[in-house]
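Appendix B, example 12.
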Amino acid sequence: MKRLLAIELQKIWKNRASRILTLSYFVILSFIAMIASIKFDIGNFKIHFAEMGIFNFPFIWHFNTYIAASLKFFLAIVIVSMMANEYSYGTLKQNLIDGMSKKEFVLSKFLTVVLFAFISTIFVFVMSLILGYSFSSYNEFGIVFSDLEYLIAYFVKLVGFFSFCLFIGVLIKRSAFAIGFLFVWFLVENISHGILKFNIFNRDPLIDKIYNFFPLESMSNLIVEPFTRLSAIKNIQAAVGENSMKDYGIHFSSLLIVMVWTAIFIYSSYKIIQKRDL
């Protein structure tokens, strides 16, 4: 496994575009810390995000994983390009000629996906600890390390999403078309969901339950938006007569759906490569 992973990392590092995108992803992730310095002063109305509690333990685990997950498209481009370059440069055929089996080839790609997700999760963990201990009002050990299940959900979400990107890259071969397909899939899921729910089935909750099993929707459901958990937002909602009853928890069933999709994407990638004339 170490040999397979070393081969893939060498391919990525030698590709200038992939190298820049990967480094940019982690640089942009670190910009989450800049949110702490944002202040708005509009007359008597003042907003200082750090003082709103977004970096308080344990809320920071929810907030940072949600924000970091929204930046995953940078690495998605790397994953798609990684597969497309195999066809463009003929490295896939060369690897097979050199003795690598098709199973080992797909495994090498999956290991890279898992490594990217793992490094990103560790990065978010360390960054959250630094920000939390710098700004949080609560530093007790039990509070600091509660709600760490958001990091598990973040890791599973990235592995699932990158596996989807890998599958699309295998299926379509060209990075531009593969990324376009990913965007179209996103639109189809969301638009069809909205049309069925609001225009045809009159807000029937069954539609939401069905779409919870769709790939991108299931990944999105792992970490729901954290903003309505903030006391400032709750006060505004209470003032206008709205009450948020949203479930912010991490559920095993949601994790399981994404893990099943991950297995489907990796297995499908293998079957496509196995049957395709390379």
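The CA atoms of residues 54 and 60 lie 6 Å apart. The first helix runs from residue 2 to 14.
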